[in-house]
Write a structure and sequence with these properties.
Elements: H1 2-10, H2 15-32, E1 40-47, E2 51-59, H3 62-65, H4 68-83, E3 92-93, H5 94-98, H6 104-117, E4 122-130, E5 135-142, E6 147-154, H7 161-174, H8 186-202, H9 207-225, E7 231-232, E8 235-239, H10 240-244, E9 252-260
Antiparallel strand pairs: 1-2, 2-4, 3-4, 5-6, 6-9, 7-8
Length: 263
């Protein structure tokens, strides 16, 4: 109320100018909030016949993350990503996305939304999967949109959408580092191996025994951190590798992307 009164006084009672002034003040206040931590937000997914888009949009509070205007913005942004010609499968930072041709209006909407809601909001990242030929896309949202996953399978003549959805759900729950051990960066593998070597030495194991122990623990590391080696959450007695490689099937996991709010 005080801001409204001040704006009317400064504009000589002109309501339209007062509204513009209030919006300017709101934008300035939002800019000052830009350094605040944004641990809340939502992941939104827009599916379609030819592509699927996914975005992660952050907010400061859970209250705003449930605001309908905020959710509508995230949904429109995901749909725009789906309909765009963004590089297939490339995860883009939010700042780069909003500077891309065709996203100018949404960038302006975000500025207005910050001022209206009175909280710092940020597009974190976005990705677009084009529908594959002879394959299937699956997607999954978990925890009310705090986690989202896009999954792509190759083979199966495009009839494996239910499996793709199940695997997307699995990835949401387990957060693997990659599809197979080869997808884990070499520096991460070497760091883990070095840690396990030191751990075995600290246990007083002879070198030839320590090496066997390290190999066993590395296998466990891959089982925990790569999709194909993990036990399927719906059936822990079956690995993802065995689930996909059913008799007579040529289906394989091509790729996935997982977004998590606060992660």
């Amino acid at each position: 109320m005080m801001d409204c009164k001040k704006a009317l006084l400064e504009t000589g009672g002109d309501e339209e100018q007062a509204i513009d002034l209030l919006r300017q003040w709101g934008a300035a206040k939002a800019a000052k909030r830009a350094e605040r931590e944004m641990a809340e937000g939502v992941v939104a997914i827009a599916t379609g016949e030819f592509a699927t888009g996914m975005v992660a949009v952050s907010s400061e509070t859970d209250f705003v993350a449930r605001n309908q205007d905020f959710l509508d913005f995230a949904s429109r942004l995901a749909a725009s990503v789906r309909e765009s010609d963004l590089p297939d499968g490339e995860v883009l930072a939010g700042a780069a996305l909003l500077q891309t041709d065709g996203f100018e209006a949404l960038a302006g909407e975000l500025v207005t939304l910050r001022a209206t809601i009175g909280e710092n909001l940020e597009v974190r990242k976005a990705v677009r999967f084009a529908a594959p030929e002879g394959g299937a896309l699956g997607s999954y949202l978990h925890f009310g949109g705090r986690i989202g996953v896009l999954m792509e399978l190759s083979g199966g003549e495009g009839e494996e959408s239910e499996l793709a959805k199940d695997l997307a759900m699995h990835v949401a729950a387990t957060s693997p580092m990659g599809v197979s051990p080869d997808d884990i960066p070499a520096e991460d593998r070497e760091r883990e191996r070095a840690f396990l070597v030191e751990q075995a030495k600290a246990e007083g194991k002879p070198d030839h025994i320590a090496e066997k122990i390290v190999e066993g623990r590395m296998r466990k590391y891959f089982e925990e951190n790569t999709l194909l080696k993990q036990a399927f959450v719906k059936d822990p007695d079956t690995t993802i590798e065995d689930l996909v490689a059913s008799p007579g099937s040529d289906v394989s996991v091509r790729r996935f992307v997982r977004f998590a709010i606060g992660g």
